[in-house]
Amino acid sequence: MDYAMASMDPYPDNWTEDRYTWPDNWTEDEYYVDYDYDQPKLRKSLNIMSLVIYSLAFVLGVVGNGIVIWVTGFKMKKTVNTVWFLNLAVADFLFTAFLPISVAYTAMDFHWPFGRFMCKINSTLTTLNMFASVYILVVISVDRCISVVKPIWAQNHRSVQRASAVSLIVWFLALVLSSPYFVFRDIGPSATNNNVIHCYNNFVSSDADSSPEVMALYSLRLCVMVVTRVILGFVVPFAIIVSCYAVIVHRLRTNRSMSGRTGRPFRIIAAVITAFFVCWAPFHIMSIIEMANHMREEMSSTLNFVTMIGMPITTSLAFLNSCLNPLLYVFMGQDFKDKVRKSILKVLETAFTEEVSRTNTYTNSMLTSRSKDKSFSDAEV
């Protein structure tokens, strides 16, 4: 019932290959949707879409975020801004580096052969990426707001050391908020095929019965995790971000002289935040719809169908966010673009220079040797 974002599976955690139901040990007939047999073509199309998007996100995300880490971490002067974007790239890189596991899981029709520990790690990294990314964006927004509203104070107090310390706090907070997925994530056989293993959220013990108390506990834990993720991972962060940028826009309108100095960084950060909102908002909306449907006394077949279609699409869109930021830096950040181009050219130049130097050294040594031989022969004559 909890869903794809935690499992890297574009279907809710209790989707099996042929039904959408409560946990496998619950068998209420009214919760069944004969998805596999009634909609096989739709399922196949959604699986193919997920495979394509996951693969694209992996290639672009690993390469793009790897370049960002390389440039901001080793090629650019260490500043507060480079610390922010370096941490953002690290979060996205960690997530995209594990996407081949999701590709394999989807390609094998959601059979999980990687074991319980990898199920927990894979799901935890997804939520860790989401929380770390959004909180780094919050920190960036607050930092920009302070720089515009209190420029002198910011100049005296902003430092790379403080930025690094704040980044560590962000990572710790994101890890704490992601820890429930490590605790509750589990693997188990499909209800219809013991040879197929699923990676899912196990909110109750495997041997629990379907008593009202157990069902209430399952619903409570599901609700807490969903509400926590939506409120702390989206609503509150974006309320802070929007407030910061409202203050920035107001200050720039009243002080035109500042717009020239903050224009380009402002546009880049605004684009990154907009991309995060567009990619993650549909997923959170769909997760609320799914949770609300499960809280009903009788689940709606219409909402089941909506979430069946919507969860794979919104999950894939959320995953794409991890490869968008490097593209935004390249297309909107002239300084970053120049640094990447110069760094790549420098690598090539060094490689060719070393080759030329070796050739020249060899040539000069040969000429010197021949000169010495000639002088010896002249002396003998």
TrEMBL record:
Keywords: Chemotaxis, Disulfide bond, G-protein coupled receptor, Membrane, Receptor, Transducer, Transmembrane, Transmembrane helix. The chain crosses the membrane at residues 48-71, 83-105, 125-142, 163-184, 218-248, 268-289, 309-332. One of its GO terms (biological process) is chemotaxis. The keyword Transmembrane applies. It is a multi-pass membrane protein. This is G-protein coupled receptors family 1 profile domain-containing protein. It comes from the Eukaryota. Residues 64-329 form the G-protein coupled receptors family 1 profile domain. Belongs to the G-protein coupled receptor 1 family. Gene3D superfamilies: Rhodopsin 7-helix transmembrane proteins (1.20.1070.10). GO terms for cellular component: membrane. GO terms for molecular function: G protein-coupled receptor activity. Pfam families: 7tm_1. It is found in: Membrane.
